[in-house]
Design goal:
The complex is a heterodimer. Chain A is mainly beta. In chain A, 0% of the residues lie in helices and 48% in strands. Chain B is an all-beta fold. Chain B is built from no helices and eleven strands. In chain B, the strands form two sheets. In chain B, strands 2, 4, 5, 9, 10 and 11 form a six-stranded mixed sheet that branches. Chain B is globular and about 45 Å long. The mean pLDDT of chain B is 94. Classes of the chains: A mainly beta, B mainly beta. Chains A and B meet through β5 and β10 of A and β4, β5, β9 and β10 of B.
Chain lengths: 113, 113
């Protein structure tokens, strides 16, 4: 089954404690991206990756890092989380950023206290 | 600044009725426009994708239209079902080398029996 898998689904952490949210896809997609979704706001792109070792900033990259060492995995790293990074995070993948269907993960709800 | 405005913000209809959701955008130049359905707490699911040269695209009971001249799109839902209750999100992607999409805030649809 074609899917994008994020882990964990829920995470509560303390300010400053480094964390990683994993994202894996089984569709051999080249394009992957991370988004955050906050109440009253639309989804906003954090980072995206066109292929292995090719990543670029989205709309709201501050406080986040990513890596793309393998085609299937695109982890999101918060080196020093702060309360304003409390949000619902989604990973997505597609064949390309152009007119191809994008598949989203099930989401990771992060709370930073 | 690129913007995507959706209306109405929320909508309540009776099961079996039709409805139309609106999306106005300022993104230019424009590559593609997508409509997603997002159930509460889940990742968005793709409904339709249209390039600037297409003016209509259907997916079952969902029909999207696009007027690239006026920068407007609509999503028409026919014979609504209880399972259509969700948030519907319009997303516009630019062309010209930028791969950062702009998301609307969504229309929350509730279908009552």
């Amino acid at each position: 089954e074609a899917q994008v898998t994020q882990n964990p689904r829920y995470l509560i952490t303390v300010t400053g404690k480094k964390l990683t949210v994993t994202c894996s896809q089984n569709m051999n997609h080249e394009y992957m991206s991370w988004y955050r979704q906050d109440p009253g706001l639309g989804l906003r792109q954090i980072y995206y990756s066109m292929n292995v070792e090719v990543t670029d900033k989205g709309d709201v990259p501050e406080g986040y890092k990513v890596s793309r060492k393998e085609k299937r995995n695109f982890p999101l790293i918060l080196e020093s989380p702060s309360p304003n990074q409390t949000s619902l995070y989604f990973c997505a993948s597609s064949l390309s950023p152009e007119v191809t269907e994008a598949f989203f993960g099930q989401g990771t709800r992060l709370t930073v206290v | 600044k690129n913007q995507v405005e959706q209306s109405p913000q929320s909508l309540i209809i009776l099961e079996g009725k039709n409805c139309t959701l609106q999306c106005n955008y300022t993104v230019s130049p424009f590559s593609n426009l997508r409509w997603y359905k997002q159930d509460t707490g889940r990742g968005p699911v793709s409904l339709t994708i249209m390039t600037f040269s297409e003016n209509t695209k259907s997916n079952g009971r969902y029909t999207a239209t696009l007027d690239a001249d006026t920068k407007q799109s609509s999503l028409h839902i026919t014979a609504s079902q209880l399972s259509d209750s969700a948030s519907y999100i319009c997303v516009v992607s630019p062309s010209g080398g930028s791969y950062i999409p702009t998301f609307g805030r969504g229309t929350s649809l509730i279908v009552h029996p």
